[in-house]
Amino acid sequence: MSYQLELRHFSYFLAVAEELHFRKAADRLFxxxxxxxxxxxxxxxIIGAKLFxxxxxxxxxxxxxxxxxxxxxxxxxxxxxxxxxxxxxxxGSTGEVRIGFLGSAIQTVIPDILVQANREYPNIQFSxxxxxxxxxxxxxxxxxxDLGFVRLSRVPDGLKMxxxxxxxxxxxxxxxxxxxxxxxxxxxxxAEENFILFSSDYSSLYYNKIxxxxxxxxxxxxxxHKSVHAQTIFKLVESGLGVAIVPTSLQYGFNLAVKFLEIxxxxxxxxxxxxxxxxxxxxxxxxxxxxxxx
Length: 294
Hints:
With 294 residues, this protein is an alpha/beta fold. Helices cover 39% and strands 23% of the residues.
C-alpha cells in the first residue's frame, strides 16, 4: 500500500521531537500511543529516513530528525504568521512587525522608530519583546521575529546587521557613594569594589568590552553578581552589593537610588545593531527598514 505525507504526520513528528517521549506526545495529541508509533513509522517509510532512535527507555532524534525538526519549526512558524498577517490585512492593517530588543534599545532607537512609523504607516502593528542577543538571533532564523536590536560582533549567514546607535559607558554607583562627577577620574578608583555585570551569556561582546575597560586600567574586576536585566543590576547596586558598568543610555527610565558617572577617556563604545533575515518576505518590514535606513 502506498502512502503520502500529510500535515498530520508533521504535527505528530513535532510532538514526539519536542517531548522525546511517545506516551507524553500521544497524550498531548489525544491519540493512542500505538497509533502515534504507527504514524511515525509510516512517515519514516515515506521519507526513506530514520527520524528517531528509540529503545525501551529513551527516544532521541537522528541527524535527519534534527534537521527535519528545525525546518518544520520554521515552516509552521511562518504559516502561523502568514495566517495572522492575512487576518490583519483583512481588517485594514498593513500587517505586523515583530521586534526583539535589549533593554537599552527601548531607551534609544526604538521609540523614534515607532513614532515615525506611526506617522508614516499608521496601519502597521508592532509586537515587542525584550530578549537576549542569542534568543533574538534564533527567533529571527526561525521566522519568529522580523527585527532584532542586539550587541553582537557578527551574525550567522543569512542575517544582516547594521550599527544604529553608539553609546558611551557609565559607572553605576549607590546614590551615597563617595565618588561624584567632580571626583571621578577613571575606573581604577573602584578597583577594590565588587562588580555587578550583565552576564556573558547575555552578550559576550559586551561583557568582554567591560572587562577590557577595567583591564586597561590595570585590574581585573571581582564579579560577584551577574544578571541579564538592568533593573536587577541597578537594584543590587542600590542595595550596596557592588558597582556596575552599563551603556550610558540605560540611566533613563529607572527610579532607583543609584547614580551614573560617564567613564571618561576610554576607547570602548557600546554599539547597538539592528539585525534581520535577508529573505524575510514580510511586506510591512520593508517599510520599517526604510525608516531605519538598512
